[in-house]
Amino acid sequence: MSWTRFFRRRHWDDERRRELDAYLDIETDDNIARGMSPSDARAAARRKLGNATLAREEIYRMNTLTRTESIWQDFRYGLRLLLRSPGFACVALVSLGLGIGANTALFHLLDAVRLRTLPVDRPHELVEIRIQPPPNGRTGQFNGRNPAMTYPLWKSLEPGLESVSDLFIWADESFDLSLSGESRSARGVWLSGNAFETLGIRPAAGRLFSAADDRAGCAPIVAISYPFWQREYGGRADAIGKTIHLDRHQATIVGVTPESFFGLEVGRNFDVAIPLCAEPALHPGDDGFRRADTWWLMVMGRLKPGHTLEQAKAELESRSPGIFAATTPADYTAAGKKDYGEFKLHAIDASTGFSTLRRSYETPLGLLLAIAGAVLLIACGNLANLMLARATAREREIAVRLAIGASRWRVIRQFMSESLLLALAGAALGVGLARVLSPLLLSFLSTERDPLFLNLEPDLRVLGFAVGLATITCLLFGLLPAIRATRTPPVAAMRSGGRAVTDGRERYAARRFLVVAQVAVSLVLLVGAALFVRTLANLSRVDPGFDSEGVTVARIGFGTAGGDRQTNTTIADNLIASVSALPGIQGVTAVRVVPLGGGGWNEGLIIDGKRQSEYPNVNRVDARFFEVMRIPLRGGRNFDVRDRLGAAPVAIVNQAFAKAFVPDGRGLGRRFRFDVGPNQPDLEYEVIGIVGDTQYFNLREDPPPTIFLARTQDDQPSASVTMMVRSAQETGPLTAAIVRTATSVAPGSLVVFDSLDRQVQNTLRRERLMATLSGLFGTLAAVLAMTGLYGVMSYMVTRRRNEIGLRMALGAGRGKVLALILKEATILVAIGVVIGTGLAILLGRYTESLLFGLTPGDPATMAGATIALMAVAGLAGAIPAWRASRVEPTTALRAE
Predict the structure, then answer these.
(1) Strands (E), 505-611
(2) 547-592, pLDDT tens digit by residue?
(3) What angle, 0 to 180 degrees and rounded to 10, lies between the N-to-C axes of helices 395-403 and 408-445?
(4) Of all residues in the chain, what percent carry a pLDDT higher than 90?
C-alpha cells in the first residue's frame, strides 16, 4: 500500500460508501419492480449485500497502516488532553523549553568551540606539527597567540615528509589600517602560498594567492575575508585591485575568501590574509621573523593517503634530533642549546583547528552543560510528579480501557504519546531559545578590544542533541507515571468509586523519591554556584599591587617620524612631557609591559655565578612608573638622572624577587646577570630599590618575582611608546587630547587606547561567566525543587483531607496537624540535603581548578547553601501545612 492511499483513506472510505449506497438503491429499485413493497425491497437488498459497515472497515484497513494509524490516534488524543489542560501544558512547556534551551545553547557553544571541524575540504586529513609537550626551555622572541615554530624549523620541514604532504604555515598578526591619528586595527593572518589550495578554499570574488605568488621579494598582496569585504567595501566588485594600507605599507587586494571560511583559529576570524613572502616588505629592516629564536608560526599539512597519525608521529620523532641540531640558535646559552636539542616534534589532529578559546573555556562550558543538564533533570522530576497526579485522576478511565480489552502496553503508549508531544514542543521552544541564548553567552566571552567570532548556525549535531534531549526527557517524566497508572487492577479501580486506590504508600513513595532527588541535585548546584560566586568575589578583592582606576593605556607608534635610537628616545621623552602638561593629567609614565595586559617578558638569571632555576619577569619603566601606579617603595631609591645610558646598569626588584633570590634579606646592593647567549651583551645589574609586589599575568597567581629596568638605559628603544596616563577626565576628551598631542609631536603617529581597569576586569571573564550562569542555574534549580516539594505536599494534603478531618474530630489540634505536615516535608528535605552534601563533596574535585581561595568542600559555602535551601523548603512546606491545619472536620467528614 502506498503512503498516498494512506493519507487519502477518508476519501477512499467515502467513495466506497457511495458505491455501497448506489448498489443498495439499484437492488431496492429492482425489488420494487418485482412487486415488493419499498420497505421489504430495501430489507432484501440489505440482506443480499451483507454487512456494509464490515465491508467498509475491511476496505479502510486495506488502505491504512494499522500501527501508524494507531500511533496517529494516540497523538491526536494526547493533543486534545493537553488542550483541555492549558495550565499544565504551559507549565510543562516553559519548564522543558528553559531546560532544553539552556542545554542546547551551551552545547551549541561547545560544538562550535570543540567539536565542529574546519570549513575546508577533507578536514579529517589535517594535522598540525609542533613541539610536544609544550617545552619550558624555549627562549627568544614570542609573537602571536600560538608561537609554536620558528622560520628555520619550518624550512627544515618544507622539503617534505613521507607521511605528511602539502605542508603550509600560518601565523596571526594585527595590522593598522590608519595612516595617522587613532588606530584602526585589522586582524591579519600570514599564509604560505599553497595554503588556500591545500585547504580547498575557492574565492568568493577575484582570486586567492597561490604557491606561484609566494616567491622571495614578492610585492604585498592580500586576500580579504568576506565580512571585511562587506564591512569596508559594501561587497562591491571594484574592491578587487584596490590598495589597502597595512602598518602604512601598501598592499593590493587580489580576492575575497568565501563567507564560510573564518581562518584556522576557532573563535577568531581574520580580515586580511597575506602571503609569507610579503613579510620583509611589511617589516622592512626587521629580520627578527627569520631568526632561529623568534617563535611565531604554526605548521600544518595533510596526511598522505594510506598513512595514519601514528605513523606521522613516529616519523617526526625519529627526525627530531637532526632537525633541532641543524636549527639551534647561535645566541642560546649552553644550557639553552642542550634543552633545545632534546625537543621532539609531534603531529596532532588539526581537523577542528586551533583555538585559545578552546583551551580556556572547554572545561567551563562542559561543566556548565552538566549543570544545565541537572536543572533539566529537576524540571523532569516536577513534570513526572504532575504526570503522576494526572494519572491518578484518570485511573477510572484507564481501568475501563483495560477492562474492555486494551493491552497494558497500548495504554502506556498512549501516555508516552502525550509525553512525547510535550517533549517535542519543548525541544522546538528550546531550540528557538538557544538561538537567542548562544550569541548572548558568546558576548560574555568577548570584549571590545578582543571580539570573538563563532559560527553559531545550528548544524545537524545541535539539532540531534535537542531531539535527543527531548527523547530522554520524554522517558524521564513520562514512563514512570505511565507504568504506575497501568499497574492498578481494573476491578479495584472501578470499585474505589471516586477515590484513587493508588494513593497509598507506593504512590507516595514515588513522589517522595522524586522530591528527595530534586533537593539533592539542587543542593549540589547551589553549592557549585556559591563556590563560583565566591571565587569571583575573591578574585575581585585581590589587590594587584597597583591602582588601576583612572589609568588609560595609550600605545603610540611613531610611524614615519621614528628612526634611530636617539630619535626614538627623543620622541618618547617629548610625548611623555607633552601629555603630562595637558590639563587634568595627574601623572604619565612609560612601560614596556602593561601589568595584566596579556604580554610578558622573562629572563634566565645568574646570581653569584649560579644559574637560577626560576625565570623572573622583567619590565622596563621610567622613574614615574611607581608613583603613577601607586606602587610603594619599600627600600632603596627610585630611578633618577644618574641612571642614564652608559652608566652602570641598575634595577629595582619587588619583594617577591628579594624573597626568592636573596634569602638573607639583603636585596639592596646585590648584583645579578641575565643568562644570555654568547652574542648578546653580558651586563651586571645592581639592585638599587625594592618595591611592593604586583601581579603580572593574572590575578590568580601569587605576585611573581619581577625586575624593573630603567627606560633611560634602553640601548634599543623601539619606534613606539606605551604610556600609562592617570587622569580624572572623561575618556572621550582625554583620548582626543592625547591624539592631538601625539600627531603634533610625531606627525603620522598612530594611537591605540585601552583602560587599565577594563584590562584587569577582562582577566576575570571566565570567572564572571561561571558565577553568572551557575548562579542563575542554581537559583532556578532551587525554585524548581521547591515547586516540586510544594506540589507534593499540597497533593498529599488534598488526598489526606478526610484523614486530617478525622484526626481533628478526635481531638487533634491545629498545631499537631501543622507539625504532622511539616515533619513530612522536613524529613524529605533533610534526606535530600544529606545526599546532596555527599554528592557535592564527591563532585567538587571536578571544579577545583576553577576555584580561587576556596576548597570544593568549603564548610561556610556548604552551610550557606544548606541554610538557603532549607529556608526556601520551609516556606514551600509551610503553605500546604497551614492549609491542612485550617480544614474543618465536619466539612471533611461529610465527604465520606
Answers:
(1) 551-557, 585-591, 605-607, 610-611
(2) 999 999 999 988 778 788 889 999 999 999 999 999 999 999 999 9
(3) 140
(4) 30
Is 167 within 8 Å of 160 (Cβ atoms)? yes
- Whether 266 contacts 128, CB under 8 Å: no
Measured distance CA(515)–CA(871) in Å, rounded? 16
Calpha distance 706→136 (Å, rounded): 19
Give the other-Cβ count within 10 Å of 520's Cβ: 22
- SS3 label, residue 410: helix
Give me 871's grid cell: 529556608
- Cβ neighbours around 732 below 10 Å, total: 8
Q: What amino acid occupies position 23?
A: Y
Q: What is the mean predicted confidence (pLDDT) over 89-104?
A: 83
Q: Report the pLDDT value the prediction gives residue 500, as an integer from 0 to 100.
A: 46
12 pLDDT tier (thresholds 50, 70, 90) = low
| DSSP 8-state class, residue 584 | T
Q: Which three cell numbers stand for residue 51?
A: 454487512
- 3-state SS, residue 256: strand
Predicted confidence at residue 588, as pLDDT, reads 95
Strand, coil or helix: 552: strand
At 108, the pLDDT band (50, 70, 90 cuts) reads confident
The lowest-confidence range among 18-32, 228-242, 309-323, 606-620 is 18-32
SS3 content of the chain, % helix, strand, coil (to 5): 55, 15, 30
Distance in angstroms (rounded) separating the CA atoms of residues 615 and 618: 9
Grid cell listed for 674: 641575565
- What does the mean pLDDT of the chain come to? 83
* Phi-psi category of residue 217: left, alpha or beta, with phi > 0 → left and psi -120 to 50 → alpha: left
Dihedral (Cα; 611, 294, 187, 156), 10-degree rounding? -130
Determine contact, residues 759/510, Cβ cutoff 8 Å: no
CA 682, 686, 690, 691 torsion: positive or negative?
negative
How far is the first Cα of the chain from the last one, in angstroms, to the nearest whole number?
57
Query: 550 or 135, which is more confident?
Result: 550
Rounded CA separation 217/208 (Å): 18
Q: Which helix (H) or strand (E) holds 720?
A: strand 720-727
**Cβ contacts of residue 677 below 8 Å, gap of 6+?**
329, 330, 331, 332, 333, 336
CA angle 338, 339, 340 (to 5 degrees): 90
CB 41 within 8 A of CB 32: yes
User: Where does the pLDDT of residue 497 fall: very low under 50, low under 70, confident under 90, or very high at 90 and above?
Assistant: very low
- Long-range contact pairs involving 828-832 (C-beta distance under 8 Å, separation at least 24): 828/512, 828/515, 828/516, 828/519, 828/789, 828/792, 829/519, 829/789, 829/869, 829/870, 829/873, 829/877, 831/516, 831/519, 832/515, 832/516, 832/517, 832/518, 832/519, 832/520, 832/522, 832/523, 832/785
Distance CA(124)–CA(266), nearest Å, equals: 16
Q: What is the pLDDT of residue 366?
A: 86
Count of residues for the chain? 896
Q: Where are the alpha helices (DSSP H) in 581-654?
A: 625-628
What is the separation of C-alpha 170 from the centre of its chain, rounded to a whole number of angstroms?
Answer: 25
As to burial, measured by CB atoms within 10 angstroms (0-12 exposed, 13-18 middle, 19+ buried), residue 590 is buried
Q: What does the pLDDT read at residue 533?
A: 92
Q: Is 36 helix (H, G, I), strand (E, B) or coil?
A: coil
Q: Stretch 733-760: mean pLDDT, rounded?
A: 90
Cα 368 to Cα 96: distance, rounded to the nearest angstrom: 17
Cβ atoms of residues 709 and 526 within 8 Å: no
Collect all residues with Cβ–Cβ distance below 8 Å to 168 and sequence separation of at least 6.
191, 192, 194, 195, 198, 299, 300, 301
Q: How far apart are CA 738 and CA 895, in angstroms?
A: 85
**Residue 5, C-alpha cell as written in the block:** 492511499
CB atoms within 10 A of CB 225: 24
CB atoms within 10 A of CB 780: 20
Question: What is the H or E stretch that residue 836 is in?
Answer: helix 814-843
**Cα dihedral 672/677/679/681 (nearest 10):** -10
Tell me the three cell numbers of residue 435.
Answer: 538561538
Q: What are the residues facing 141 on neighbouring strands?
A: 294
